[in-house]
Amino acid sequence: MSPNQTIRHAILAAVFLALAAPVASAQAPPSSATSAQTSPADPASGSGRTQQNVVRQAEDGFGTTIGRESIGIYTAGNVRGFSALAAGNARINGLYFDQVAAPSARIRQSTAIRVGMSSLAFPFQAPTGVVDYGLITPGTEATLSTTLSADTNANANLELDFSLPLAGERLSLGGGAAYLENVSANGSTSTQSVFGLAAHLRPTSWLEFQPFWTRTDTRDNRIGPAYSPAGDALPPRVPRGRFFGQDWAQFEGAAQLYGVLGKARPAEGWSVDLGVFRSAFLTERDTFVLIDDIQPDGSGRYFVFTDPSGRTESTSGELRTTRSFAQDAWNHRIIASLWARDRWQLFGGSDTQDFGVVRVGERVAFDAPEFAFGVQSRDEVRQFTSGIAYAGAWAGIGELGFGVSKTDYRKRVQRPDLPESETRSSPYLHNGSVAFHVTPKLAVFAGYARGLEESGVAPQSAINRNEALPAVATRQQDAGFRWSLADRLRLIGGVFEVRKPYFSRDADGLFTQLGDLRNRGIELSLSGALTESLRVVVGGVALDPEVTGEGVQLGRVGPRPVGLPRRKFDANFDWTTPVEGVSLDLRIAHQSSRPATTLNTVFLPDRTTVGIGGRYRFRLGGHDSVLRVSLSNMFDVHAYDLYGSGTYDVIEGRKLNASLVTDF
């Protein structure tokens, strides 16, 4: 049976189970039971882009994106020291999504990182937290929002977003378009065209659908170099904002995502939720530029790695049936779910060009070579999972939840000049959690989850760049509390331990498993209103990461994983001033030193960056408008980020940004 047939049969089976329920009425109202799905704090539907303010809308300090701005200690690529995306823990409106291309800002209302107590709403929890995308829901009012922005690095954006009711509450359309001119810290440039559409259909009071589509095309993306020093040293200081690449060394490609969300409430206490997604990343050409073996005098060898056309595509989705009912002081939910994915990747065949010795900080133009591409590799992953979960809430006392699922994982790999290989795994996975309401304002919880997760792909700096890595068994234990200090101020704390195999680049440049990694830590979040006019969102994590295994014992791997700081802190403040329409904001972000090489012989130093900004809300031609001005990295801290073990790129320097948003 093909994977598409498997998905179709699973969907039909779950629909049959739901519709076979004792339907009290074809027009029964939606269940009043708590939904298993969550979404981040959103602006009011249809209120337009002028209402967006990530500090005032974030629920906690762990990680939130609203519109064009992000805050928090975690990102989709780093949650408790791991990538939630590589682990396969992405969700769209709470439903399983195998991400190749993310929802663009044209159809995305918000993004939230769910860990600890905020992840308990998901019936099938997995280690490494959850990245939950909340899509826009076109409203019943016609709106048009325009955004013009530019900064001192020569970035310039034009964005248009709209919502249009076509048949009252039964049918509405929304979406937008954007044209972006981008300039990065290393002088790389690109242009992007972004389009997105979403519809909201409600044929009856108990049934609704939300189809959507988005595409981002990237053109003329000139690639600047990464830097890899010889020996145990950081790169020499690299001038920011200057381009040291080649005009012909470019990336061109497109990211596309489309699908449909569906909700049905066919009878009192019964609900069916559906999400089907098609996600693709299509490259016409891809390039990685590296200045390698950099000597103390700043000289190094200039390499350009160029890939032929490639593609990564995934079809994924989830169908969930929920039965909700109350019994005395208990509210019960029984959830049966089916989710699946079919991912296919074509990659490799790189052409490598060695242009000899150059000096860091000096641009040398080389003639474009004749590329000689090799045979490409193919990876295919098919995974089908079914599970059942229970969630119960005892009014005023606490909550209990657990889930069991069975997954069937198969991966096929085709490499040039090698026979096809296949790996299979069919484990039972489980998770459980319990929460107690100690007082009306204080709750404590504990949880456990075991998962089978992807390890992502090898980074650009590895000799097996872009290769999909094998699935691995993972587990997580965590516990914590949520304390309402005041009506609108909340403190969340937790401890956690996550265990996974450790992948990094070995001495030969191969990205592979080098041991086992245990991340143990403490995380805190304070969010809410300190006063009527001052809003705060603060997050912090203290991490104790440790690598174990034969590689450490033999001295081939250091005891700490590459790129993970022991401490990270992100504080955000938003103050509504006495001046009408004016608010000011402040951000302080800090991370401690972190290993930059697998052997822990080089560390990136700790760094603290500060940003300030303000908003002026006013009426422009009778329409709500916001002028936003911000200054990031105001002290112009010079530092590096990691491409991988021993490979670096500069961070963005001081930047002044201004934008004007108007809702029509």
Q: Tell me, what is the CATH class?
A: Mainly Beta
Structural class by secondary-structure content: mainly beta
Parts with pLDDT < 50 across at least 5 consecutive residues: 1-46
The chain-level mean pLDDT equals 89
The CA-CA distance between the termini, in Å, is 51 Å
Question: What Rg, in angstroms, do the CA atoms define?
Answer: 25 Å
Largest sheet: 22 strands, antiparallel, barrel
Total number of distinct structural domains: 1
- Based on CA inertia axes, which overall geometry fits? globular
Query: Count of DSSP helices?
Result: 3
Helix content: under 10%
User: Which second-level CATH architecture applies?
Assistant: Beta Barrel
The percentage of residues in β strands lies in over 45%
Q: Considering the protein shown, what is the CATH homologous superfamily? A: TonB-dependent receptor, beta-barrel domain
CATH fold-level topology: Maltoporin, Chain A
Give the total of beta strands: 36
Features:
single chain; 3 helices; 36 strands; six-stranded mixed β-sheet
Describe the structure.
This protein has 664 residues and is mainly β. The chain has one domain: TonB-dependent receptor, beta-barrel domain (Maltoporin, Chain A, Beta Barrel). The protein has helices at 3-19, 54-57, 550-553; strands spanning 64-66, 69-71, 90-92, 95-97, 108-114, 130-135, 143-151, 156-165, 171-183, 189-204, 207-222, 226-229, 250-267, 270-294, 299-307, 310-327, 330-347, 351-359, 377-394, 398-414, 421-425, 428-439, 442-453, 472-486, 489-505, 511-529, 534-548, 567-576, 582-591, 594-595, 603-604, 607-620, 623-632, 640-644, 647-650, 655-663. The strands form four sheets. It has a 22-stranded antiparallel β-barrel. The protein has a six-stranded mixed β-sheet with strand order 2-1-5-6-3-4. A two-stranded antiparallel ribbon has the order 30-31. The longest helix has 17 residues, at 3-19. The radius of gyration is 25 Å and the shape is globular.
